[in-house]
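User: Show me sequence and structure for the first protein, then do the same for the second.

Assistant: Starting with the first protein.
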Amino acid sequence: MSATAAPTSRTEPTEPQAPPNAKALRQRIVSLDIVRGAVMVLMAIDHVRVYAGVPAGGPTPGVFFTRWVTHFCAPAFFFLAGTAAYLYGQRQESRTQLAKFLLTRGLWLVLLELTLLRFGWTFNFDYAHFTFAGVIWALGWSMVVLAALVFLPTRAVATIGIAIIVTHNAVAGRIFGGESASPLSRILYAGDGFEMAGLQVAILYVLLPWIGVMAAGYGFGAIMRMPTERRRRLCLTIGVSAVALFVLLRATSVYGDPRPWPPQEGPMPSWLAFLNTSKYPASLQFLLMTLGPVLIVLPFLENARGRVARWLSVFGQVPFFYYVLHIPLIHIVAVLISLVRTPASTGLLVGNYPLMPPELPPEYRWSLWQLYLVTALVVIALYFPCRWYARVKAQSRNRWLSFL
């Protein structure tokens, strides 16, 4: 999402106001677009990795960082979605309009995750025996919750979000955990999967931590409306503090992640294990490790220029359009490669792989250079439809285009 913002104020505005500096405002939006665009490129690396048969991390630095670098995607995606919601709300006449938009868009995302995107991942229509609740599912429900929260003062929304991020490792696991967790508990925090009315549902992204991340991002929107120097100072202060807190918590292992450091066993070197925090569900340490650098880099991108910045900003303007396209494109490329390299394994790619992966033959796995080459080709191919759609979206007043 991209939006305009109003000047800073000590009271909650009820009407949109003109920005004090249109050029500075444009630069702030570009910085958000560049970060979102970078997130989409990293996301492509991870999803190509899935179809390449490369494990999600490992004891060698190449495999480990191929997965680790993509950990920035979901936190930035949720956090900046909250920020964009705040900025979008400044253009609306009332918070009711913002809430209605978040509610309808959130439910639309959930519907697409369970239908179109699930097909893009699997290339089959066996919905009854396997339904996948992934990142777009959690993003949609987080928007639905945010639709209710926006009627509170912005500071209250931010406080709720930060409280969820900080406390969920201690509180949520006790409330929603356990082998006998109900379907609702599994959706909220326990994860795994459940069966209901003959429908098998696999939960990858539980809701509670991500609702908090989006709410915190909504509060961050107020910072993006501040004067340039104060905004930059706060971004750096918050970002550096988050990284420092991550290092402290990780080094002491006193709180914030179920994986202790240093590891008590396993082949992974200690220095890699320091970064090997838990994503499912996203722990406090995981979120500090990923969101801190995102906030640090934002001020340095406000004046970004050049071809790379322009390319990334295109993806950042239409992130969901990119997401909808990139999964089936990667899947098609993987099928074509399998037909050439390992034709006997191709049938696995039109079943429930990679969501319920079978044992792949050793010869199927791609090398890392093949993985990154395919990623580069996919990203280049996606640039042109994304550039076209970004122009259409910018020139059109059709509100339905905001849903894609």
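Switching to the second protein now.
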Amino acid sequence: MGVLAGQGRRRRLVILAGGVVFLLTLLAVASARSFAVLLVAFVAFYPASGAFVSLTQAEIMDARPDRQAQVMARWDLAGAAGAVAGPLLLTAVLAVEGGGEVGGGWRAGYLVLAGISALIWLGALLRGRPEADGRPAAAEAEAEKAEQRPWTARVREIGPEIGRALRDWGTLRWLLLIEVADLLVDVFTGFLALYLVDVVHMTPAVAALAIAVRLGAALAGDAALIVILERVSDLTVLRVSAAAAALLYPGFLLVPGLVPKLAVLAALSAATAPWYPVLQARLYGSLPGRSSVAVTLSSAAGLAGGLGPLAVGLVAQGFGLSWALAGLVLVPVAVLLVPGRGRSRA
């Protein structure tokens, strides 16, 4: 879908259509009275999100090719704010509904999200395409030319276009690093509560507190990144954060006591906050004028990256969760070393 959407007006139509389906899926979930309806709604939600959210990201990246890291930092801050606001929204609607019994309060949460999504879609419709500050005139002309080509021509070009991108180490390394780095971001978060309860023998309440600390520290790190990138290059930020994580992550696993563990966890979460926005911006930068290809590659890599949690789980089952998480110490080393190989975009 990313490659077929292309650029310009065609991509904008796909974004708006995806937003409509995105809104309808949220309403379908809120009103579902059977498993079949719920399943169809959730299945449709993901391609709709790809069209509405991921292609919007590509549109913004195209508009500011000279400030992609800074723009991605703002994008990631919005995502981090959503990660913190989501549980708070669910808590609020369940409290208002009085217990959240099956078929009760959770539906209100999806209705609220549908209302917010409708406002965002309306804003996107009224605002139009982002202004292309800094985009070369030649790139604009090429985009307009590509916009006139038929869908059949785009279909024939999908394979060769993606193949060229994958043969370029400058693109492939960022694509791989995004998935590797995620092992110490989202994947680690997924196993964090289990580790604290089963390995460190803390209570579920403390584990919940640790998750809140991690999300809050990541949000603070995303906010700080916006300011830092105005003064420091994105690669320097990436290397410093990876070096810090290489020290903080083993420290988190080894330090005893609740307060020290939470303190190190907060520092680690803030340190890894720059990884996704910087790496994603670098991926877009390695494909100038081909942001839709970046969206397609990111989506495909995300499917492959889904093997990460499975691998951690299999190692944990065979050798214990402590050893499985200990293996993640290699992640910051990869983030620190791999970007230095080959030429980097200035």
